[in-house]
Amino acid sequence: MYASLLTVAWLLAAPPVAPTALFNGKDLSNWVNVNTSPSTWTVAQDETGTPVIRCTGIPTGILRTNDAYENFVLEFDWKHLAETGNAGLFVWSDPYCSTGVPFSRSVEVQIMLTPDNIDEQGRTRYTGQGDIFSIWGSKMTPDRPHPTGWERCLPSARMTKGAGEWNHYKVTCNNGDIKLAVNGTEVSGCSNTTPRKGFICLESEGSEIWFKNVVLTPLPSASPALSASDTADVDAAGLRPMFDAATLAGWHEEGKKIGDATSDHWKDSQGEIQFDGKGTNLWSDAEYGDFEMLVDWRWTGEGQGKMNRPFIGLDGKTVKNADGSDKVIEVNERDSGIYLRGNSKSQINMWCWPCGSGEVYGYRTDSKMSAEVQAACTPRVNADNPVGQWNRFKIRMQGEVLNVWLNDKQVLVNAKLPGVPARGPIALQCHGSSIDFTNVMIRELPAAR
Length: 449
Prior knowledge:
By secondary structure, the protein is mainly β. It has two domains: 2-235, Exo-inulinase, domain 1 (Jelly Rolls), CATH 2.60.120; 251-444, Jelly Rolls (Sandwich), CATH 2.60.120. 5% of the residues lie in helices and 41% in strands. It contains three helices and 33 strands. The strands form six sheets. Strands 1, 3, 4, 6, 12, 14, 15, 16 and 18 form a nine-stranded antiparallel β-sheet that branches. Strand 27 and strand 28 form a beta hairpin. It is elongated, with a radius of gyration of 25 Å. The termini are far apart.
């Protein structure tokens, strides 16, 4: 209540804030295509000649705003073309998708026309009438408890028009509260949202939808300022996708010409890069110097068979048994990696060895390197998820210094790679194992001094 009174006082005392058109009617310059295809989102015209953002719904993914927002009122019109159309609006979102999925941590405001979903006890689980719910790590308290206990607010009224008709959404996001009005009637809401500052996303999810008249009016920021835990990862806004979700454009197999995106073994399927374990390495056409990169990956297939693999100590040396023999364990071998700056020696390994993924094998095993270099190129902890589950690498390369996080645990800390090239392409390695990649994103950093 106190926060609401402060907001009212500010609105009375301050000059009105001009609304901002998030869609300029000409192009998508105010938006970032996070993980779909350029063909997914285009500018078109509706039946009256009004410019619209046209979304094909294929593949599933998101288009986000350039900027992050805290408190605001967002209004827009939308129209599904299919009778059971499905899409959404994400608010207070991270600038990238969560591990292994095409959706971001955010609160979703449902934009859907499907019939109510009823469980075996006769309880409504979700509707197509303007539900609000948390996804992928965000938190919220629904205005009305959900019948099954979900963090989901079911609408209090049915105001949505059907396929081929325009609907108007007014979404008010203020100090952790979200309210949705559908065609002039408030129907759902939530409070205690985390995070409560981030990006706004339009969702593509399988069916064609049009958006128009997308207008945002800022509201005053929270006082005191939000903590880091209440804010999405806005510092990562510079990340951009390295793959078109429909093609391998911008990549080529080793031995082929730059620009040749055809491959019998690497396939881009709905945003996932699927590799059958055959063929050659897949290289980026572009070269990079200093950069930060996200890569999600998971093992597929049956593996390469049972093999003995050594335990590696934190000093980078093979651990010995009491009799002087190497300490080993039998694993179902899987092996791949990421080459940095065109150099196979600076490979970040993915495998099933006891030390875990993230090792820089070419430097750890090089007897010409100092003990300090070899140790720093060895993972500090085994952070791999079980085979078949998604993993996420965060890789930061600055000058000769490499830092690597795996599933939010730092596995390499300021590992120095003497002699690593200053610039070069990036590769996904062929090493006989089938593997999937997704959410591959990169941003260039200022050169290290």
